[in-house]
Amino acid sequence: MDIHANGVRRHVDSTDRDSVNAAHLTPAQVRVMHGVRSGMLNRQIAEDLGIAEATVKAHMTALMRKLNVRNRTQVAIMAQSLAELQ
Question: Which of 15, 37, 44, 82 has its CA 20 to 30 A from that of 5?
Fold first, then answer.
């Protein structure tokens, strides 16, 4: 894992789990987040979920806003960290 990813992981690990729960993610946003965690591209997530790629992009924008992260990598790391907590 590179230095940037380690820094992001520390940020995510220090995030209060209640604040993540307070993000109120929709079921569709959770499915998109799982796709990102799996390393899928927007196009692949769209095909997998049977939705338009533009819809995946809209979900990603909402995810980043709700989770207070800035990019796809941070969404993936957040999703992985949340999976490890469960």
Answer: 44
Question: What long-range pairs does 12-21 form, CB within 8 A, spacing at least 24?
Answer: 12/74, 12/77, 12/78, 12/81, 13/81, 15/78, 17/85, 20/67, 20/78, 20/82
Nearest to 23 by CA among 73, 59, 71: 59
Tokens for 18, please give them.
């209640």
Per residue in 8-67, pLDDT (tens digit) is 555 555 554 555 565 789 999 999 999 999 999 999 999 999 999 999 999 999 999 999
Q: What is the pTM of this model?
A: 0.74
State how many domains the chain has.
1
Domain carrying residue 45: 3-85
Residue among 2, 16, 8, 22 nearest 78 (CA) = 8
